[in-house]
Write a structure and sequence with these properties.
By secondary structure, the chain is an alpha/beta fold. The protein is built from eleven helices and 19 strands. The longest helix is centred in the C-terminal third of the chain and has 20 residues, at 363-382. It is elongated, with a radius of gyration of 26 Å.
Length: 383
């Protein structure tokens, strides 16, 4: 049995305001072609199909497009809902989709409703665990208020159902944060009172657990792993090699997992330095940055004039501009601590100037601040 495991499409998402729809469409059509070329028996999508509960219409149209393409290729699809999805909206038309080979699993009631496929060695049961918010499902699952408890209860139901059906080989698609995995900045926190993760042991006895939620591809055990997102959604993912997983299951339940790299629509780059130096290097060693989404960290002691406009002349896809002056005095966190410990209005204003401009205010600026503070004080006294 050969499966394609993917997750975290986040259809409708932008990268710092830049649309990713074209890149998402390119990925999805590439994925469909890969599924046909590798003759997979099913595609497993482990949640976060959409980026938000009410997705934009072009994202909905794109999902329809890819599901039709897979259906025409006669490749079954198992789709679970993630924490970004609306389980009700994603699950709409569930029974009708089943007729086309698209199996939506978005409710607790779906846990014991597998997609059962057969190969020469017998059945393989594909089960879907949607994102389980403990407060919403703990009563229905008769479980404690933690992700570990509700996921454990869900996995117990699945193991019991597979045993009743006589299915020895099982695949579970789940959307969760499993202990020991490496998160990225672009994932929404799913912690509830500090109990947001679950141990991989809750999936013991499952042939392969196809995880979603974390955007970096990673294996937690031989049988539990994240495919990762197909696109980068933050500059914290600049070092990721995005991929989908091809999972081969033999007759005895042994597995082999192959990470197939996803073609990069537009890469990420982060550059650091003084503005004039970066502009000079844009035509030499930083020439290749022009085709990428770019984050620029400027180290100039003072903010240069119109930096974003000048950067976009050489790197038109610059999205993020940050200022970290070399040798600047106090980091923002330390400045906030100083503000909390200081009740003098002038010093509080000076700390704000330093936080914004990374330099202490000059004598002239301090004079202007003192005048403003005095004017406010006089106004308050006369009110």
């Amino acid at each position: 049995m050969r499966l394609l495991h993917t997750s975290d499409w986040h259809l409708g998402r932008t990268l710092h305001g830049a649309s990713l729809l074209v890149a998402q469409r390119d990925f999805l059509h590439w994925m469909c072609g890969l599924a046909v070329a590798r003759q997979v028996d099913a595609v497993v999508v482990a949640g976060d199909v959409y980026d938000r509960a009410v997705p934009p219409t072009d994202a909905v149209s794109l999902l329809d497009e890819v599901l039709v393409e897979l259906s025409r290729s006669q490749i079954p699809v198992l789709v679970t809902s993630g924490n970004h999805d609306s389980a009700i909206r994603l699950g709409f038309g569930r029974a009708l989709h089943e007729l086309a080979g698209v199996h939506l699993r978005t409710r607790v009631a779906d846990l014991a409703d597998p997609v059962v496929l057969h190969d020469a060695d017998g059945p393989v049961g594909l089960y879907g665990i949607p994102y389980l918010l403990p407060d919403a499902v703990m009563a229905e699952l008769d479980a404690g208020r933690s992700h570990a408890a509700v996921l454990g209860a869900a996995a117990t139901r699945i193991r019991a159902d597979a045993s009743r059906r006589g299915v020895d080989r099982t695949v579970v698609a789940a959307h969760a944060f499993v202990t020991g995995a490496r998160p990225s900045e672009s994932e929404r926190d799913i912690c509830v009172g500090g109990i947001g993760d679950a141990p991989a042991a809750v999936f013991d006895g499952i042939t392969y657990t196809a995880l979603g939620h974390l955007h970096g591809p990673q294996r937690l055990t031989d049988r539990v792993g994240y495919s990762g997102s197909p696109l980068a959604f933050s500059f914290s993912e600049v070092g990721h090699t995005k991929s989908v997983s091809i999972v081969q299951i033999d007759g005895a339940g042994g597995i082999e997992v192959e990470a197939v790299p996803v073609p990069v629509h537009r890469g990420l780059a982060e550059v650091r330095g003084r503005l004039e130096d970066l502009l000079a290097r844009a035509r030499t060693d930083l020439f290749g940055v022009a085709d990428r989404w770019v984050k620029v960290v400027l180290t100039d002691p003072q903010r240069p004039r119109a930096p974003m406009e000048r950067l976009r002349e050489v790197w038109p896809h610059t999205l993020v501009l940050d200022f970290q002056p070399a040798g600047a005095g106090t980091a923002p966190a330390a400045a906030l601590i100083r503000v909390s410990e200081n009740s003098e209005p002038l010093e509080i204003c000076a700390a704000f100037v330093e936080w914004v401009d990374r330099t202490r205010p000059s004598a002239q600026q301090r004079g202007a601040l003192e005048s403003a503070i005095d004017a406010v004080a006089r106004a308050e006294l006369s009110a």
